[in-house]
Amino acid sequence: MSPTEPFPCLMVRHSVGETTTVQVESITVADLPPGEVLIKVVYSSLNYKDALATQAHPGVVNQLPHVPGIDCAGTVVESSVADFAVDDSVLVTGYDLGAPAWGGFSRFVRVPSEWVVRLPAVLSPRQAMIYGTAGFTAAQSVRAICHHGILPTGGEVVVTGATGGVGSVAVALLAKLGYTVVAVTGKPELHGALTELGAARILSRQEVSDTTGKPLLSPRWAAAVDTVGGNVLATLLRSLKHRGCVTACGLVAGIELPLTVFPFILRGAALLGIDSAKCPRGPRLEIWNHLAGDWNVLRQLEPWVREVSLAEVPAEVTAMLAGKSQGRVLVRPMGA
Q1: Distance between CA 164 and CA 143 in Å, rounded?
Q2: Helix or strand run (H / E) with residue 194
Q3: Residues with Cβ < 8 Å from 255, sequence gap 6 or more?
Q4: Region 2-10 average pLDDT
Q5: Measured between alpha carbons, how far is residue 317 from residues 7, 45, 53, 157 in Å?
Q6: Per-residue pLDDT, 19
Q7: How far apart are CA 166 and CA 149, in angstroms?
Q8: How far is 222 from 36, CA to CA, in rounded Å?
Q9: Which burial class, exposed, middle or buried, applies to 16 when counting CB atoms under 10 A from its CB (0-12, 13-18, 19+)?
Q10: Residue 16: its pLDDT value, please?
Q11: Computed over its alpha carbons, how large is the radius of gyration of the chain?
Q12: In sequence order, what are the residues at sequence separation of 6 or more whose Cβ sits closer than 8 angstroms to the Cβ of residue 211?
């Protein structure tokens, strides 16, 4: 790859008056940050963190200009380490990719070798990004529920934000593993699609957001995957059965947690935080092997997948920030 050959990326900049602009630009390999592995990106995907990055959210982006994209999959073009060779199929999710380092909404990325995971042989780059960071996060949540000792016979498992990237994959994974899944969504037009994905029944958002202030509610759930946070997360914790658990990975409903200690000291509830970016390498590889093997739900997810170009990402971001996005949005960085 010539250091002067231009290729496209999605660039976030400050314009006059500190207004944030997002547009497709041409850069070169010489513009990329340092790293041991140069990857030709075949697919990336759109995640909520990417949407925040396009708005130059200070909790995500340290400085502008910036290239979003917290995951990518493709082939190695250059490598200065023995672990990876030219033409190896690889993926990157998390670490600092796309936040704060330049990310996968680019035809090429250059990253530290410790960020890189060899693509399981049975997965194509497109299939890896159907999962992407969202699917990896969902799988971490499912793994945490399993490791907590929650069995499919223990009762219903509820998934909030079920039509989103994390939620839709979580519904499919839990159903595949034999759990009785209750999906929560504010999109009644997608009830049928959630049933096909594996949901046993579907609730509205209001049904999992209690505002009475009661420190404990009637026990309902063996476990929960929460993608929204705020009062919904507090409601789920107050509604757990004895020794149940909730995995938490989102904040679209708020960052506050209005709660007492009663769920923890009277029912033994567990709140399990899911941090995909810094997941250790051992569990990271285990999860990808699961997703490529015994947890493979690609067939179920395919109807939930759409592909967009770099130029179409801003419109998808608008929909995501307005709560109108659904499923998985794959990003093709080959051109505008």
Answers
A1: 19
A2: helix 191-197
A3: 229, 230
A4: 89
A5: 22, 12, 10, 29
A6: 83
A7: 22
A8: 45
A9: exposed
A10: 65
A11: 20
A12: 231
Distances (CA, A) of 71 to 12, 116, 133, 187: 17, 10, 6, 27
Q: Is 312 left (phi over 0), alpha (psi -120 to 50) or beta?
A: alpha
Contact 9, 67 (CB under 8 A): yes
Element (H, E) at 14: strand 7-14
Mean pLDDT of 224-241: 98
Distances from the Cα of 100 to the Cα of 1, 59, 63, 114, 277, angstroms: 25, 9, 8, 16, 11
Helix (H) or strand (E) holding 181: strand 181-184
Structure tokens belonging to residue 209: 């957001």
Terminal Cα-to-Cα distance of the chain (whole angstroms):
20
Residue 162 corresponds to which tokens in the numbers above?
Answer: 């079920």
The confidence score (pLDDT) of residue 1 equals 63
156 secondary structure, DSSP code: -
* Three-state DSSP class for residue 172: helix
Place of tokens 């547009």: 23
Look-up of token digits 């290239």: 67
Pair type for strands 221-226 and 157-159: parallel
pLDDT of residue 325: 87
Structure tokens at 281: 């390498």
Q: Where residue 335 falls among pLDDT bands split at 50, 70, 90?
A: low
Strands (E), 97-200: 108-111, 117-118, 157-159, 181-184
Rounded CA-CA distance 184/272 in Å is 19
Structure tokens at 33: 């940050």
The H-or-E segment that residue 76 falls in is strand 71-79
The single residue listed with the structure tokens 């033409």 is 87
